[in-house]
Amino acid sequence: MLPVWIIEEMVLRALAEDVGSGDLTTEVLVDDGETVVGMIHSKDAGVLAGLPVAERVFQILDTGVVFEGLLPEGSELAPGSKIARVRGDGRALLSGERTALNFLQHLSGVATATRRLAGLIAGTGGRLVDTRKTTPGLRVLEKYAVRVGGGHNHRTGLFDGVLIKDNHIKLAGGITAAVRRARDAAPHTIRVEVEVENLAQLQEALQAGADLILLDNMTEDLLRQAVKLAGGRALLEASGKINAANIRAVAETGVDLISVGAITHSAPALDISMDLGEVK
Predict the structure, then answer these.
(1) Distance CA 267, CA 134 (A)
(2) Fewest CB within a 10 Å sphere: which of 55, 101, 134, 261?
(3) How far apart are the C-alpha atoms of 178 and 165, rounded to whole Å?
(4) 106 with 161, same domain?
(5) 12 near 26, Cβ under 8 Å?
(6) Catalytic residue from among 85, 98, 139, 248
(7) Which residues contact 232 (CB under 8 A, 6 or more apart)?
(8) For residue 278, what pLDDT band results from cuts at 50, 70 and 90?
(9) Active site (annotated) includes residue 55
(10) What's the CATH code of the domain at 25?
(11) Is 97 annotated in the active site?
(12) Into how many domains does the chain fold?
């Protein structure tokens, strides 16, 4: 579920960006107080995500709006699928249309991309996870869409997990020193992850006591060797240049997690529209 305050904050910011001081076109063409019905439908196949956000867009513009979701979140969409029926003030529906659809199209695109890759590794034991490569300001929504699509979330931000990367290692004086310093400073509830590029670094990270190890841009052969070397002493995450063509092979190496930034930063938006119908 999405916290109400997060939806509210993001919707208000999006409406301020689009509507601003008023919808000039709608205000001169549509009579005040005219009630209409709109139907939101998909023109693409994909996975539905973002209904609670779209609903809140219209509710902010018209407190009396009636938003009826016709499909649950996570539903498989086909071209022509009816997603929701909206009844309310015509000015509000027209002013909120683009913002509501932007959220629905983008979040459904993320859920669709996620489900596709998650389906490709089904049965392997590997988990598809997202990254911090998200649209600024939309991370919480995009990570929600990943969950709707059947993926899993990596850390939300820099504040809720320790991930020691190459530049951290350089500045800390090596992997062993970096892990030790993280252990000394981080709360006991936080796991420590280290990014490595080769088997020698992996061995050092294991000896240092890392909980998770990110295997960066390793070949499938190296990933298999890494799994054997780790022997279950730490969770292993494969990352880098992973896509639909190779994700199954990566999962079959035995890694625990597979992180793919493309499911958030490069997911194509679904084509979703709203048509206004009868006037009430």
Answers:
(1) 10
(2) 261
(3) 10
(4) no
(5) no
(6) 98
(7) none
(8) low
(9) no
(10) 3.90.1170.20
(11) no
(12) 2
